[in-house]
Design goal:
430 residues; alpha/beta; Aspartate Aminotransferase, domain 2; Aspartate Aminotransferase, domain 1; 2 domains; 12 strands
Length: 430
């Protein structure tokens, strides 16, 4: 077999990118369940300890993980990728690869609650300030939030669970005007529906736990580098990439690996070396299985979500509905710009009667499961204010777009008629 054509369609890359079977070799990505690798000479081991660019210890590289990293990079249109143990690890390491104590970042407020806590509480303890901005703020207001020590701007393509749509081009323009990169969490849209790099994003991250895996099999994350941000133009702003790394024999990543390899190489050999947030090879294997059907699942997720949103919009017991794919939604125009083929499978709405009515509705569902998970092949439902976002203050909840009555329904890939029937019968009990 020949390696996957880099110009192939996404549907083909989902199946073939990242791994090419050899003659007589396994047809699927092999699971290399090994921590260590054997060598014939001390010279080779010494070479790899200078810069572990091939497997020698699975904290740095593993053949199973490498293949999946290459596939995700191909899907996003990036030059390289690094798998992590979770989406949170991807968020953390993407920031720490650029920031140190005394630096700041700018993030939109409507992002995943765990990331809000990571940026606003944990990073603060380590001397990194997060400056929050409204995603709908004008360019001048956002620009005013950027300080001389600001190293990046962060946003989510579609916020979990507020379902706000991130104006990638607007924020990319602002970031680049201030000589900093834009990091975009593309978890909900996936590269099947949106490729942020094409709109100016520099780094893309994922919680692969969600749609990419798609079957609640494995926790994971990924960081993808576009290779387009020229770190060398701003060496004083990004010394970790542009000056010698004394922890790795004085290597300067931009000099040795160029723009196409500096960011991911540093993240791998420095941060993964020190933090060890690696995925297990088995998890990478399961993730790859999910990726092979991603292009088939996402249209059904979107079709179900839109049908549920349209049904809920007309139901007398529903107070409000939020879904960016719905005509008339506040973010519909942005969704059409960045995700014309669909947005995601998640719908949020409020049941009349507040929190008690919401709980009654959720208890009445038979097909959908009450679960902390989202973006699964099976439909899941959750009350974010009392679960995923319960660590936030009332002010933080409001800024994140989380109301007390908000229900997050993650529509799976079941038959649309069965899913609507389940929602209908649960509402009848309210």
């Amino acid at each position: 077999m020949q390696p996957c054509n880099p110009n192939a369609k996404l549907e083909t890359k989902c199946l073939h990118a990242g791994y090419t079977p050899k003659n007589g070799g396994p047809g699927t990505v092999p699971i290399v369940q090994s921590t260590t690798y054997r060598f014939d000479s001390t010279e080779k081991v010494a070479e790899l300890f200078d810069m572990p660019m091939e497997p020698m210890y699975s904290r740095f590289a593993n053949p199973t993980c490498d293949a999946v990293e290459q596939k995700i990079a191909a899907l996003e249109g990036g030059v390289g990728a690094m798998l992590t143990s979770s989406g949170q690890a991807a968020s953390l390491l993407s920031v720490l690869n650029l920031c140190s104590a005394g630096d700041s970042i700018v993030s939109v407020s409507t992002i995943y609650g765990g990331t809000v806590n990571l940026f606003g509480v944990t990073l603060k303890r380590f001397g990194i300030e997060c400056i929050w901005v409204d995603p709908l703020a004008d360019e001048e207001t956002i620009s005013q939030a950027i300080k001389p020590n600001t190293k990046l701007i962060f946003g989510e393509t579609i916020a979990n669970p507020a379902l706000t749509v991130f104006d990638i081009e607007k924020f990319a323009k602002i970031a680049h005007a201030h000589q900093i990169p834009l990091i975009v969490d593309n978890t909900f849209a996936t590269p099947i529906l949106c490729r942020p790099i094409e709109f100016g994003a520099d780094i893309v991250i994922h919680s692969t736990t969600k749609y990419m895996d798609g079957h609640a099999n494995c926790v994971g994350g990924a960081i993808v580098d576009s290779g387009k941000f020229d770190w060398t133009q701003y060496p004083d702003k990004f010394p970790g990439l542009c000056t010698p790394d004394e922890s790795y024999h004085g290597v300067t990543y931009t000099e040795r690996f160029g723009l196409g390899g500096a960011f991911i190489t540093k993240a791998t050999v420095q941060l993964m070396r020190d933090f060890g947030a690696i995925p297990a090879p088995m998890n990478a294997y399961l993730l790859n299985v999910g990726l092979e059907t991603l292009h088939l699942r996402m249209p059904q997720h979107c079709a179900n979500a839109l049908a549920v949103a349209q049904f809920a919009q007309k139901h007398p017991k529903i107070a409000w509905v939020s879904y960016p794919g719905l005509e008339g939604d506040k973010y519909h125009a942005l969704a059409q710009k960045y995700m014309p083929k669909g947005t995601c499978g998640v719908v949020t709405f409020g049941v009349k009667g507040g929190r008690q009515a919401a709980e009654t509705f959720m208890a009445g569902l038979k097909l959908a499961s009450i679960a902390t998970h989202v973006a699964d092949a099976k439909t899941c439902v959750l009350h974010p204010a009392s679960s995923t976002h319960r660590q936030l203050t009332e002010e933080e909840l409001a800024a994140a777009g989380i109301t007390p009555d908000l229900i997050r329904l993650s529509c799976g890939i079941e038959a649309t008629e069965d899913l609507i029937a389940d929602v209908d019968q649960a509402l009848a009990a309210v």
